[in-house]
Design goal:
mainly beta, five-stranded antiparallel β-sheet, globular, QdtA_cupin_dom
């Protein structure tokens, strides 16, 4: 069982394609959204927050997310646009991007450089 929350988004598919809906599933109001692309083979993130909550969706390709909440560590691979990983403020997260990946991020707060914690948890 994971220490982190991975949501399965409602998806409808037929011969015309698939439609995935994110409607009322996030436990916070979305204030900011952004997407990361062109990061093939690179790592991004490498921080946690004081207050901001986030939801990550790999729209294309595959993104491996290393998560650490100070107690548990886990690598979670997002490889389908119907997967949504919740990132709580306490969660150190670092993403590694596969070829052609596009990561969509929903955030509970606007950008504030003072909200970032760039120090990972110390392990004994």
């Amino acid at each position: 069982m994971s220490a982190f929350t991975l949501l399965t988004l409602k998806t409808m598919s037929d011969g015309r394609g698939a439609l995935t809906v994110m409607d009322g599933i996030l436990p916070f109001p979305v204030v900011r959204s952004f997407w990361i692309y062109g990061a093939d083979g690179h790592k991004r993130g490498g921080h946690r927050h004081h207050q901001t909550r986030q939801a990550l969706v790999a729209l294309s390709g595959s993104v491996m997310v290393f998560m650490d909440d100070g107690k548990a560590q886990e690598e979670i691979t997002l490889s389908s646009p119907d997967q949504c990983l919740l990132v709580e403020p306490r969660d150190w997260h670092e993403m590694t991007f596969g070829p052609g990946s596009i990561l969509l991020v929903f955030a509970s707060r606007g950008y504030d450089k003072d909200d970032y914690i760039d120090t990972p948890y110390e392990r004994l």
